[in-house]
Amino acid sequence: MQEQESRATSYTTLAPGPAFRHEIEIKRSRFITVLRRAENEETARDLVAGLRREFHDARHHCSAFVVGPDRDIQRSNDDGEPSGTAGLPMMEAILKRETAPGVTDLSDVSAVVVRYFGGILLGAGGLVRAYSESVSAALEQAPLVRRRRLRICAAHVPHAAAGRLENDLRAAGFVMAETSYGARETVLRVAIPDDPAELEAAAERMLQFTAGTVDLMPGGTEWLDVPLP
Fold first, then answer.
1. How far apart are CA 151 and CA 199, in angstroms?
2. In a 3-state reduction of DSSP, which class is residue 177?
3. What is the DSSP letter of 174?
4. 10-142 — its CATH code?
5. Alpha carbons 114 and 124: distance in angstroms, whole number
């Protein structure tokens, strides 16, 4: 069965790379937050399993993750803390994190908070605040990127003209995808926002750059990282 295309055309996520870590202490308890990009449930759960091994002597390894362009996969686990005091506040911190004024679109994020109990009970309200604050503080410092669904379009050009055309496209702000080389021509691939007006404008720009000699041929779509504005 063909997978249904996401309603979203862009969202914000963690930059690729190693897991991001942040630690706070509240009434002698250590709260170690670990964030990692996770584009599926398996990757998100792997983070929890790995941290259980690394911090095997900690009392709690609470977790939450939000996955998918439409944020349709949401899971949380209190791992022994009173019900609703850890995993859910962590997930809410992800869901409510503003990535721009009034924009809450963070996804593909797995968060684990490792707690070393300091001997002082925090109470239900204190736990909710602690776990929420732990994730929120980590997200404030973690590197983020925009993830966009882009239409990959191809331009077939002679080898001798490819370098200059690619430079012109980059200078005009186009996002370049993978380039391939044939016996007689270079295939430049350009990632265009998946919108009819954007595609038409890009095709016209390509004709301008090449004096009407090269057409931009639309292909499939891919999710690509682009820098935040």
1. 8
2. coil
3. P
4. 3.30.230.30
5. 17
- Segment 191-201, tens digit of pLDDT: 998 889 999 99
Residue by residue, DSSP assigns 2-42 as PPPPPS-SEEEEEPSSSPEEEEEEETTEEEEEEEEE-SSHH
- For residue 222, count CB atoms less than 10 angstroms from its CB and return exposed for 0-12, middle for 13-18, buried for 19 or more: middle
pLDDT by residue (tens digit) across 75-88? 999 999 999 999 99
The CA distances from residue 134 to 97, 203, 227, in Å, are 13, 47, 26
- Return phi, psi of residue 116, to 5°: -105, 115
* Assigned fold of 148-226: Alpha-Beta Plaits (3.30.70)
Shortest CA distance to 73 belongs to which of 91, 59, 85, 61?
91
Length of the chain: 229
pTM of the predicted structure, to 2 decimals: 0.83
Question: Mean pLDDT over residues 138-166, rounded?
Answer: 95
DSSP per residue over 84-106, as a string?
A: TSSHHHHHHHHHT--SBTTB--B
Tokens matching residue 119? 């001997």
How far apart, in whole angstroms, are the C-alpha atoms of residue 55 and residue 58? 6
In the block, which residue shows the tokens 């001798």? 160
Q: Where are the domains of the chain?
A: 10-142, 148-226
171-180: Cβ within 8 A, 24+ apart: 172/205, 172/209, 174/202, 175/150, 175/224, 175/226, 177/150, 177/152, 177/222, 177/224
CA distance 114 to 134: 10
Residue 2: pLDDT over 60 = no
